[in-house]
Specification:
Layout: E1 2-7, H1 21-32, E2 36-41, H2 49-56, E3 60-64, H3 71-83, E4 88-91, H4 93-97, H5 99-104, E5 110-112, H6 117-129, E6 139-143, E7 146-149, E8 176-178, E9 181-187, E10 190-192, H7 202-205, E11 210-212, H8 215-229, E12 233-236, H9 245-258, E13 263-268, H10 275-283, E14 286-294, H11 298-304, H12 310-323, E15 326-333, H13 340-352, E16 357-362, H14 370-377, H15 387-392, H16 408-424, E17 427-429, E18 432-434, H17 436-451, H18 454-475, H19 478-483
Parallel strand pairs: 1-2, 1-3, 3-4, 4-5, 9-12, 12-13, 13-14, 14-15, 15-16
Antiparallel strand pairs: 5-6, 6-7, 8-9, 10-11, 17-18
Helix pairs in contact: 1-6, 9-10, 10-12, 16-18, 17-18
Length: about 500
Amino acid sequence: MRVLLVNAATGYVKQKAPLPLGLLSVATHLKNNGHEARIYDRAVEGGGFSRRLDRFSPGLVGISVPGGMSFADALKLSRVCKKRNIPVVWGGPMASLVPELALQSGVVDFVALGDGEAPTLALADALSAGEPAENIAGLAMLRGGEPLVNKPDRPAGLAGLPVIDFTFVDASKYFFKNRSCERMLHVYASKGCTGTCAFCYNSGLAKGCWRRRPVGYVVEELRWLKEHYRIDGVYFVDDLIAPDRETLAGFCRALIAASLDIAWSCDIRADLFEREDFFLMAEAGCRWVMCGIESGTPAGQRLIKKYLDLDKARDTMRWCAEAGIFTTATFITGLPDQTEEDLKQSVAYMRSLGAQTVIGGIFGPFPATEMTLALVEQGRMRMPATLREWASAATMHTLGNNFSRVPSRELRVIVNRCLYLVMFNRYELEGARKRLWLGRLAFQLRDMLRRGNLRSLLLAAVSAKELLEIFWFALMYPGIVKKYGLQRTRTNEGRPRG
């Protein structure tokens, strides 16, 4: 069967579009099992959807819906398919969390829950053979007007998923810059997270389960990308690169043995590892890490149920600097019932942590999280009843309902001031001090304009609007900036080594 896999557009422009790793894995799995698959990534490709349907004539269309911002485009594409009587299956994190709402839209026939490879293949097999799909594990559908949600099989190890075939896309369209690397790509080495933080979507998806890919698969993919695209760096998009020291050491030693000469970055929990672990990571090619601190106060850590050791996190930043690893730390403002005093303390902690860059976000509700359910139970929030309502709910980078005790304007100022500082701080690189993040933004804007299609031009306009918003909130409220200690000084400019 011919299957067209589509990555729905989001309109989110604060970072370069990543490789559609989920769709690539599904496409590879379909190809390996006798089906013909193609990928249409609306984040980087122009051209009309209807024209692609005419040329390819798929028997099934799969649409990836990674977040609420994808709903509008995914629904538009699904309506086109509905008019042509082409079955539509949605997948991705957000679709997996609200399958009933997707089905009730009237234009979505199926939703693949969790890992999409197995249910999508089983669906393609069933449709090809004219067989029913009611008993496919991990697939939701309407039957008799009511949602039928078949739970996925117990999460299996990732050895059963394929080594990704990257020939489905032009990987050069996804290059991004980071410090000394010009040709970086997004890849993955694991799925899930051992944490069950009260605010995080992963608590509803992974449920505290972390699964590792065979490191041989990862090395094979990196070697292929190095040979065919001359990549010089990768970012592992895993929620957690390793859950313990032993696993991390094994991963690093495998990369060292492979001699790939590729720099890499990843996300870590800031209190898991010891000093020698970071030197091993650096030997294996790690040059940047991101740590989700989320709150700089013990009370905040208890609220979000992350329970991070804040003193150990300080050690981690120092050890990374000693090993030559650049650090980025993130935190959340506007947590439910957060007071101005708690937020002041949290910001002060983040500023004194020792990370080269500090990025703030604004709390927003995700489906099925403990915090969202608590807000609904307390009567402070009505659970969104449609996809449109979830799409308009703020999640981390915008401000919708403010559930904290801090004025909304102050939350906006803090988050945008942090972005402003990141953009205009100078960082040591190859003996010079450069504004690295401005270079990344310029690279991204040039890439949008070079594509020349209408969607890219519109995204460039949105990007310019968001940049102006950053400047406005970062510069026009000096009283709030001073209140939270966010003045720009030479002492808080990043000075990473390596």
